[in-house]
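Dear colleagues,

For the upcoming journal club I promised to circulate an example of a predicted protein-ligand complex. I picked one with coenzyme A because it came up in last month's discussion. The inputs are reproduced below in full, followed by the predicted structure.
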Amino acid sequence: MNDVEAINAMVRQAAEKAAQETNDEPEPILVGDLNWPITCELRPGLEGAIACGTKIGYVNGSKGWLIYRGINIFELAEKSSFEETSYLLLYGKLPTRKELDNFRMKLAGYMPIDETVLAVLKRSPTARVRDTHPMTALGLCVLVLGMLDEKAEDTSVENEREIVIKLIAQIATITGMIARLRSGRDPVEPEPSLSHAANLLYMMTGERPSPVAERIMDISLILHADHGMNASTFSAMVINSSLANAYATISGAIGSLKGSLHGGANERVLYDIEEIGSVDNVEAWFQKARESKRKLMGFGHRVYKAYDPRARILGPLAGKMSENNPEIKRLYDIARKLDGMVCAELGVEKKIFPNVDFYSGIVYRALGIHAGMFTPIFAASRISGWGARFLEYLENNRIFRPRAVYTGPVREEYTPIDRR
Ligand SMILES: CC(C)(COP(=O)(O)OP(=O)(O)OC[C@H]1O[C@@H](n2cnc3c(N)ncnc32)[C@H](O)[C@@H]1OP(=O)(O)O)[C@@H](O)C(=O)NCCC(=O)NCCS
């Protein structure tokens, strides 16, 4: 078994462990035909709300299942590539070899980016790219791409699908560009012969990744590609439902993903682990965090009430990368101990377990990536799910327009300014 096969075998083992530990608690029935109007019970944060029907993906929170187009995430992580998974999400079927080759060529062809984007990053008043959050820069660059596209305002499904494919390629390029500029180095041109995962790593680090590094990045991109009606996906769908255009939609989704309660958690996890410092401090840090009711980054989920299947894969991968790397081992050992303590206490009490963001940062750090770039990597993957979902909704578009319950007074007098 070579090194890449060994990584795939680890994914298989994670799948077997997940199957053994399946939780059989009841789950709201969210599979089957959707016939409007429906009745559902709502809680704050739109918990329980049904926004639409979809054939793209399904999360069963109590069993810890994640499915893209009917295929289990463990199987995709073991056998697929990010390009193939993106095709699956966008077109609803696995590509033939020829379709996949064409899709890959298309992505590689779209990767080189208009020089205006680099000029904006270099010349804007916030040219201190180092101080601007990379997600802010990424969202801005997507809007710049929209300014440069003569067909940006064509909101047909066909045109927006083409823009999504272009953005799958170019968000990777921009992510590489921002990573390089932040570390005071010149951007690296994309290399068309490389896979998407390898190119992303190459454009960030300037080095061609090893087959193992490439495979691990590929798995991580597959795992992050889609995840139900999460905040950024819903943001994308809301924006696109007004026929704003695909660039405004994706830029808005990037803004939503940035937050620390969503994709931004992966960066924050690493800061927490650094704050803990050593495995001996985990217990005291955790107890203090509990007393102060601090939110533990990388734990908890609106939907999962079981161990997140993506964390089941990324945890062992982080462990693998910690072998022969003392610095990563230190981070990994702290994370493992915290994982165990949280599961033992909060897992039992509140069904809080690690989510996708808990181990991804350690994996990326082991691949030589700075923490600030973790969330842009998430975006470079999630663009496929955002695109698939807002395009599916666009087919039968109706603008999103919920209501609020007004809780203020209704008959207040207007007081003139000199009597206030
Ligand atoms: C993901 C998240 C935003 C979901 O939020 P939510 O569905 O609104 O869940 P709530 O905030 O209502 O949490 C329910 C309970 O669990 C607790 N809880 C949830 N996540 C927690 C966490 N990460 N650390 C500590 N307690 C947590 C809440 O304090 C609350 O406790 P209470 O009932 O005693 O008030 C939340 O779990 C969180 O902030 N996690 C950390 C950030 C993160 O990792 N985000 C990435 C998600 S993929």
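Two points we might discuss: The chain has two domains: 3-265+367-395, 266-366. The chain has a mean pLDDT of 95.

See you all on Thursday,
B. R.
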